[in-house]
């Protein structure tokens, strides 16, 4: 039995690698090498089962599980596509394997809370953003990626997405699904030129000239953390106690200067720089009142629709702090598909999660939903998509959205809304310093 | 003299009419705004807009009921759910309230005062923490499972929701007890002399006289399920087809849906508001009667 | 003032007298309240002592069946021929034993530690995980242990009643009386014991869905149940959460937040209650003034606000009050077409606080109008008559007759509203969500009141249920004390027996 499995596994991995190069021309070499070497490490036998479809692991992996019922959570926009994908999965196996696979719409940000509240009623396979990982791990509701899949998953997905879910012993908590859970600059290219879009000052100036608004949701910690991050106050997981937010060593005067620079722009471009719900960006584009904004990838369809040909996207601009242009550093997350440890069908759930995060499914999602894939081969195939390019460029200048204390969001939101409020004096260094120190104390829950 | 008095009175009345008119305008205009913008043709979130929409359309209402592109939004079903839950919970609530208030108003027994005090303060605990406990209590009763209907057709979660909404109704006995207190005791005494039991007095004498308070109780408990947006969410979880309108509409404006469904949210709000408003207007007389007689015997 | 003197006053003076008396007596009332609480506690323990005594005495005096009832429920009753009751008692015992064996015992056993077992898994050859045991969940243990304790208390009460009943029937037999039949007992439940019939269902419901979760929540306040690594397994931490809230030295930030928010909560509750009240009275007076027509139309206009669900009307309001919302667009017409971009909800703290109070008027005044309209019609006409004869101006009539009368008869209602406003979650949450945020506060803003802060702590990212429960308990203590004092000293409470 053990040997058969080993052979199957090896075959599957080789196949994955082969498929990778078959479907997306140039990207094959690297993954082929990876897949090949791993297959060699795993098993001495020859990869005999090379004809096995890479996306669909062999039926025998289901073991004694038959008549399986599973529930999958996907965000509303992805439900229809996920249904199609699941159906293809179901059809691939014999009639008796699956009784039903249900796909239920569930917002990803709530998924972790709902699973922790009642894991037995929750989905067996579910998508979640990386900042929820800690909560899920604490609550012990994730089944780690099956050891047999770990090497393939690690080899096929972008390194950052893998290390963010890697446990200390090298196992993975969940399957990487996307590499795009971040925000970028979206603009009306008839108002803001590509050149303007390079600096925040340029963007604001162009907007001001046209009498239109620029939107950055400065009261929301998810967006307003850029102020502190750009200054260098970047988070770095938790302290040894596992609950207090740790920061990298930063130069406080530099952070304060950066915050002051942001506040100054907010003041100078009052009426142009506005803090609003990002949902207003696409509406604003439609009405012609907004010319640029910092928006998330999940709204890109709406933004594109609103602007049509005028649509422009770029990584976040730079900001001038004391004469030097500083790249704005953002928060950047990934999405994962996890397996609920309370599932009755461990094997089926793992295989389904593996399938849903495979190359084909990721490509489908990239095409139809605009989700940036975490799969390396899929990434390369999409290299010329403007949004995904903007996102991946910004990803280079971003802090991974993992291991974030519960106090982080509201405290960062407060920092942003304080800087933004009318009464704030952007030249008051002492006040900015106190504000920043309070923010850090709040995040670290000190005193 | 008489003329000037009349003049002054007319002047005062005119001023009052103006003030009332302006106030009515202030009170009503947000709803006019809501209705107008639910009919707005140019889509999107409600900002950066002129006060009045340029073009009107019924499309959002049609979309709302004709079924949307999204699998999780099903407004007609939510509306029915809420209606059913509201009906059942208002029956149970009304029975509880009337039983408790009659008991405290008319019957005398040892634990009466302590029980009344306990009942009064119980409702003062902020309830969010107890919601998760309620969820697990429903769970051991098997009322959170969406897959197996009771007797084949009754959604368990809706039963659970009815229980949650009506369970605490008995605590809100104050107003209705106040009403019963105003019904003369002599009636009871006469009936007792004629050999009626307390049970008969309740059903045959007190209840028929209590139409205002019954209507008041029914009305207030009927509205509860239409407005709660926290507890129902915890009980329903991901079972979208069992949502009530409040959490359904809430779902429409979460970050995932807001850009696409904001207009339908507005339309849905109008659809929810209209029947309740009509009901209220129809029953207003009794509502006022109930709240007055009950709240204020002094 | 003697009773005769009082009776000779005219109605207006009576009101004034009572009104003054009520507030003069308030400090005494507070004192009496605490004395009553103290007495109740003493009575409680004396009662327990007496209970123990009776328990022993009955055992000594009882015959064999009564003695056996101490171990097996209902034996005494069955022996004396009261079969149905005896069987019911016995059934309760059987069910309780089954309940404890199959459900409750385990949770009671784990209650002191709140669970220690962690997840146990094994892996097969391919690495598929198999969960053998999901481990303990402290929250479930605490909840079900609470359930078990409540059930045990109820069963204990049944147990005591079983013993008493057995002894009572023993005495009855000694006196040669026969036990009453089921039919007679059933009849009694429709008459003499009708209160039990009527109250049993509501009390059962309230017990399960209100009291039990409440006890659970109170217990949570003494644990470290929070999102920082204690979501599944948590421990007892004693008074730590209360310490965090009240200790201004060691836990300055949280304590400052608590006192800051508590202060604003009180201001808010007072402002919201009285602004609604006064405005409501004024509008009700205007609508009910003689000679004003279209009364029902005006009332209807205001009633619509009640009928529209609050989450709709308040969300709508919050949209209209943003910098690009309807209000600013409206204002721009008076501002030469330039949008003033006033941030009503998240601008300066003062602005935001004023906005919530004003919007709360918009939400709340219609309720006041409705209830006040009725009261106004109830004011005895002769009061106004005599005032008019004395030549009092309308303003004087209002301040000397209408207002005292209203305040006097609606004091209980006013207190209910005050407590309601302390817990007025919807207006704050849906309107500002606590904004503008305050960097000195622990996860709260300037308009946050205690309940919304509690909500943020428990339902938000932090999931600090322990701290949230502690806040809940403190809110509860404030509200409960306040309303018990007022209710038990208000006129309507004292005059309750007026009709009997």
How is the secondary structure organized here?
The complex is a heterotrimer of chains A (447), B (298) and C (500).
Chain A: H1 2-23, H2 28-42, E1 68-74, H3 79-92, E2 98-105, H4 108-117, E3 125-129, H5 133-138, E4 142-143, H6 147-156, H7 159-163, E5 175-188, H8 200-210, E6 213-215, H9 221-231, E7 235-238, E8 245-247, H10 252-268, E9 273-274, H11 279-287, E10 290-296, H12 300-307, E11 311-314, E12 318-321, E13 324-327, E14 330-340, H13 346-356, H14 359-369, H15 376-381, H16 386-396, E15 398-400, H17 408-420, H18 429-443
Parallel strand pairs in A: 1-2, 1-3, 6-9, 6-10, 14-15
Antiparallel strand pairs in A: 3-14, 4-14, 5-10, 5-11, 5-14, 7-8, 12-13
Helix pairs in contact in A: 1-2, 1-6, 2-6, 9-10, 9-17, 10-18, 11-12, 17-18
Chain B: H1 2-38, H2 59-66, H3 75-106, H4 112-122, H5 128-140, H6 156-167, H7 174-182, H8 185-193, H9 198-206, H10 211-227, H11 231-236, H12 245-252, H13 258-295
Helix pairs in contact in B: 1-13, 2-13, 3-6, 3-7, 3-10, 7-13, 10-13, 12-13
Chain C: H1 3-8, H2 11-24, H3 26-61, H4 64-69, H5 75-79, H6 83-110, E1 120-123, E2 129-133, H7 138-174, H8 182-188, H9 194-220, H10 240-246, H11 252-288, H12 295-307, H13 310-320, H14 326-333, H15 349-378, H16 381-389, H17 394-422, H18 425-431, H19 450-459, H20 465-489, H21 491-494
Antiparallel strand pairs in C: 1-2
Helix pairs in contact in C: 2-17, 3-20, 6-7, 7-9, 9-20, 10-11, 10-20, 11-15, 11-17, 12-15, 13-18, 17-20, 19-20
